[in-house]
Amino acid sequence: SIFLGYERLEAETRIHKLARRDGRWYVVLVETPFYAESGGQVGDHGLIRGKNFELRVVDVQKEGDEIVHICEGPENLDISTPEVFAQVDPQWREPTMRNHTATHLLHAALRRVLGEHVRQAGSLVAPDRLRFDFTHFKKIDRQELEEIEWLVNEKIQQDLPVEVIHTDYQKAVQMGAMALFGEKYGDRVRVISIDGFSKELCGGTHVRHTGQIGPFVIVQETSVASGIRRVEALTGPRAVQFIQQSRDVVQDLDQLLNCSWEQLPAKVNSLVEQLRQTERALQRLKARQLLEQVDELLKQGKKINGITLVMAEFEDVEIDLLKQLGDRLRQQAQSTVGLFVNRWPDRANLVCAVTDDLIEQKGLKAGQLVKEAARVAGGGGGGRPHLATAGIKQVDKIPQIRKYLEETLQKFA
What is the spatial distance between Cα 141 and Cα 377, in angstroms, rounded to a whole number? Predict the structure, then answer.
């Protein structure tokens, strides 16, 4: 197939091959304006119109030297006349071009700000967004991200020419063009040069001047693997939409918190601190109420061979509070084993406490007891002889845990 898409978005051409698989048409044209997915840039969308049919191109892939158009359309086609009109959707291609050129600017800006160790490790160039993976050893801080974003926008505002250079591979390398690691290149290559700021080997489609990109906004920076970072960004109308949505959120917060946007960070920090203080006060209240239950729990305990078994279930209680309850039980009682359960819908935490006299005289150990008890309900745990914890997954088997403890204590005369 001959690719015409660098110069035009439509062409009169002929069908060279045609096949139907899995409910879709696979079409190879003699000449095509459709770009096949390559180098991170997604394949074009658009239409192929014949004399008596129309196919909607939803993807384009390269197979050897052939450009394969993956299309949706009627099951039966009249292709007695192989001449067709191929038309790329400009609403798909143009934002993709903006994002591809912006990706080159982003790569150059990353190297300027972070250092020349930065190398491309993958990318996605689509109409609605761009994603760039690169080598770097740590998270990019806010100041660095703002500097990178500012530098890209500066180059866009300068409306720099985007030059396409066809040359030999060795000459391209000598002129400083960056090659993608692991990519195979022929003797002749295509270089995209942006006024000395960026120079890369690239077969993708690009705008003619950087000013056509429009606003550039970084929306996220994350880690994808050890030593590999990812930046996601928007350009043009999508960037404007993101800015407007961000402004709407800020204005809503302004009204909700009754402050100006400049005061928002301080206001939110103040509210977060108030919430923390309230949570701490609530935990103290819960602890006091919980610890006041020890006497009542001891009255409800079951006597087994001179040992009192105290078992109680709770909901939404921190495990640290249950530990405090275990310690209080040990302080107030003798010859007592306590098992406290905090239930969740799909799991539960256990805290087991054993008084010192049982440890010394009977050899009972909380760590061993709770470990074996948790095993009954598909869990596990352990800890010290006087206090131990466990977790279980089968909350419906809590009654079996009680039964296990009762049977175990029966053995200690």
Answer: 46
